[in-house]
Design brief:
The chain is an alpha/beta fold. It folds into 2 domains: 153 residues, P-loop containing nucleotide triphosphate hydrolases (Rossmann fold); 87 residues. The protein contains 15 helices and 9 strands. It has a 5-stranded parallel sheet. A two-stranded antiparallel sheet has the order 3-4. Strands 6-7 form a two-stranded antiparallel sheet. It is elongated, with a radius of gyration of 23 Å.
């Protein structure tokens, strides 16, 4: 598959992959693909940042390689590590045969275990991989600094083997929930797009797309209820992902209309903190479900 010829072609491809992107997001992703520049997607949790990268890989018909960031993430987890059991076996076999293994023989690509970043750099094609560096704000400052070489030069350095450069530089998509500010050096290397909460009409369309068989009235009611929840002073306002989960839970229970009883039974599918559950109940479920 050739790269999308224009923004609308990419947007149509994302739509086919099940992701409803607005024009601004489609434009940002198109530029990332065509310019070969990493893109940083920021936004509240649940607005579709990770799904955008997945849909982009599906649209480009290429491999998605995902690195899930977390506090304390190490280079060994993200880039590579040596297959120590295999190296030890090689040493023992050499000793049994009366030969010695040189250090250079042991630190050979045959003993290298590629983790997501190295796998993206060494991806053979025929199209560049989409490298999803998910929730980069959860990683430490040191790891963020380590990413700079990869993002700037599509290369990584392995002390024992030297610098490995990508023949097909990956399309890097970084996501952040803004739990902390990222450094300017990282941001300078990236295109940027903020994904906000979509409007009610788009959320309803997404719910109908992601929960096949859900009735139009229920999709609209769930969307309106989620909008009302976001208007409350909640610790974790629900996003699109929670709207999808709520609609799916209601569908499993055979609910066709979102009323107070159905909302009370399934509220935990959309509100994930006890303090928020208490706040919603105090505000009143009748106001949550509106005229349903």
């Amino acid at each position: 598959m050739t790269p999308p010829a224009d923004i609308e072609a990419l947007r149509s491809g994302l739509d086919t992959a099940g992701y409803l992107a607005d024009e601004s997001l489609a434009t940002a992703l198109f530029l990332a693909v065509r310019m070969g520049q990493p893109i940083l997607l920021e936004g509240e949790p649940g607005v579709g940042k990770t799904e955008a990268a997945k849909a982009l890989a599906a649209t480009l018909d290429t491999r998605l390689i995902r690195l899930q960031c977390h506090e304390g993430l190490t280079v060994a987890e993200a880039l590579y590590e040596w297959n120590y059991p295999r190296q030890l076996l090689a040493i023992r076999l050499a000793e049994a045969g009366g030969a010695a293994r040189r250090e250079a023989d042991l630190f050979h690509p045959d003993y290298l275990l590629a983790r997501p970043l190295l796998a993206a750099v060494e991806h053979p094609g025929p199209r560049p991989a989409v490298l999803l560096i998910d929730e980069v704000d959860r990683a430490d400052d040191e790891f963020e600094a380590f990413l700079l070489e990869l993002l700037a030069e599509a290369s990584v350095t392995i002390p024992e083997l030297g610098t490995r450069r990508a023949a097909l530089p990956p399309i890097a998509v970084l996501t952040s929930n803004r739990t902390r500010d990222l450094h300017d050096a990282l941001k300078r290397r990236c295109l940027y797009h903020w994904i906000g909460y979509p409007d009610a009409g788009r959320v309803a369309r997404i719910v109908r797309r992601r929960v096949p068989g859900v009735g139009d009235p229920l999709a609209d009611q769930v969307t309106a209820a989620v909008q009302r929840l976001r208007a409350l002073d909640l610790y974790k306002p629900p996003g699109v992902a929670e709207a999808i989960s709520w609609a799916a839970a209601l569908q499993v229970l055979g609910v066709a209309v979102l009323d107070e009883a159905a909302a009370a039974r399934t509220l935990s599918a959309v509100v994930k903190y006890d303090e928020d559950l208490t706040a919603v109940r105090q505000a009143g479920l009748s106001g949550l479900v509106g005229d349903a």
